[in-house]
Automatic annotation (TrEMBL):
Gene3D superfamilies: HUPs (3.40.50.620). Residues 2-138 form the UspA domain. This is Putative universal stress protein UspA. The lineage of its organism: Bacteria, Pseudomonadati, Pseudomonadota, Betaproteobacteria, Burkholderiales. It comes from the Bacteria. Belongs to the universal stress protein A family. InterPro entries: Rossmann-like_a/b/a_fold, UspA.
């Protein structure tokens, strides 16, 4: 039986990974789940002008809000879980937490995007696959929106066209 790390930001895709973990627990494949929410740090400008305790309170409130639905789903399924929150680079915090918490694997869900979009963007999933010392299980989520499917390739095409025009 595995110990899972579930990075969760409260999005529908993240909750899909939580439901997947609940199913794995019902099958007897999982004994423990660690929920992790990673908050981006404030800019140095904000950090200079806002008290450390206020920043910590803000990050804690945001993490609790992001994890609330995931905790409800895990509790309803009877899955033993612990919630954690960190501030920093998402991929690095997740990789470090997987080691520190002795997780056997990380489960993430991601939107279904085109191969071109995946090649162009540096997604969290791609970063995790590169950084993590433990296996990363990727659950295919909902298809990406029309803007994500078309907008980035169109932007890349427009950028390439401008480069070609400027080179001539």
């Amino acid at each position: 039986m595995d110990t899972l790390l579930l990075p969760c930001d409260g999005t529908p895709n993240a909750l899909l990974a939580v439901r997947h973990a609940c199913d794995a627990f019902r099958r007897g494949d999982v004994r423990m789940v660690h929920l992790l929410n990673v908050q981006a740090p404030f800019s140095s400008y904000v950090a200079r002008h806002v008290d450390r305790e206020l920043r910590a309170d803000y990050h804690r409130e945001q993490a609790e809000e992001a994890l609330a639905e995931a905790r409800r789903l895990l509790d309803a399924a009877g899955v033993p879980c612990r919630a954690h929150s960190e501030v920093g680079d998402k991929a690095q915090c997740i990789a470090d937490a997987a080691l520190r918490l002795r997780c056997n694997r990380i489960v993430v869900a991601t939107a279904r995007k085109s191969a071109l979009v995946r090649a162009v963007e540096n997604s969290l999933t791609s970063q995790l696959l590169e950084l993590c010392p433990v296996p990363v299980e990727v659950i295919g989520g909902a298809p990406a929106g029309a803007l994500e499917r078309v907008g980035i390739p169109a932007g890349v095409g427009a950028g390439a066209a401008l480069l070609l025009l400027s080179a001539s």
